[in-house]
Amino acid sequence: MHTMNNLEMQQYLFDLHGFLVIEDVLGREEVAHLNALIDAQNLPPPEEMRRIGSAAGKAPAVPGFLDWGKPFSDLLDHDRILPILRFRLGDSFRLDRLYGIQMSKGMPRSILHADYGATASGSRARPGEFYHLNDGSNPDGFVVVSWSLTDSGPDHGGFWCIPGSHKSNFKLPQAISDTPGKYPVLVTPQAPAGSVTLFTEALTHGTAEWKGEHNRRSLLFKYCQSHITWSPIRVQAPDGYELTPRQKQLLADPADPYHFKRSLFGEAEA
To answer: For residue 148, which of 68, 48, 220, 96 has the smallest C-alpha distance?
Structure first.
């Protein structure tokens, strides 16, 4: 859809739904190369290892799947995701953690959850920790960027969510949490291989049962404003190749934006 490449439209839809799918970000050759690099890791099957290439959250600090080749770090600051991250997180943000997800047919869903707002486990969310929009910017919280390396969507499974729930003032009803298939509020957006899905962690979301004949493969990068952190463990830079200055800044320790962290976009706009 040509409108999905229009920044004004992308910002509107992200704000409206709490997530955004941008198709055709990666070409077939790029997707095939990333999949080949993952294949070369000889990982256990999805039934034995659902989450792959994790970094941050548990000691020791590791690069995760960034260690599998430069094409993975090229996704860190891909030109197609930066405008939406800037819209949501401001001029100075950082990568907090990353991991991949693989699933095979019949693997069950995960629980529906949100990290901020009424449905979060810490429901007494402090100001700024759930979705607010002020003066055309929204400089707090976490945004997840999920790269699809295989097709996902209503016919297969994958990321699912309740659109608009990032703005809800009421906790997710237990009935929906227990039996989400009974309620039409859940959406599994179409996300073909090569597409990218961005969503706020304030959105009620999870992983649907995988029904596809092929395996699911997604790479998740979790970003936040530069002074925020979820884990005391950093994502470590890979050893086998050099990161760009901007990529190095994305992996640097947390610090206050503008005072200790410069803009990722050069001169910060007023």
So the answer is: 220
143-186, pLDDT tens digit by residue? 999 999 999 999 999 999 999 999 998 999 999 999 998 989 99
Distance CA 155, CA 210 (A): 9
Q: Look up the pTM and report it.
A: 0.91
Provide the b/e sequence for 3-22 (b: ≥16 CB within 10 Å).
Answer: eeeeeeebbebbbebbbbbb
Place of tokens 């995960």: 110
What distances in angstroms separate CA 196 from CA 23, 48, 73, one per listed residue? 6, 26, 15
Q: What share of the chain is helix, strand, coil (3-state, %, to 5)?
A: 25, 20, 55
Looking at this protein, which amino acid is placed at residue 155?
A: D
Q: Kindly state the greatest CA–CA separation across the chain.
A: 51
Neighbouring C-alpha atoms within 13 Å toward the C-beta of 231:
19
Q: CATH number of the domain at 2-250, please?
A: 2.60.120.620
> Hey, is 3 helix, strand or coil?
helix
Tokens of 137: 């910017």
- Number of Cβ within 10 Å of residue 55's Cβ equals 25
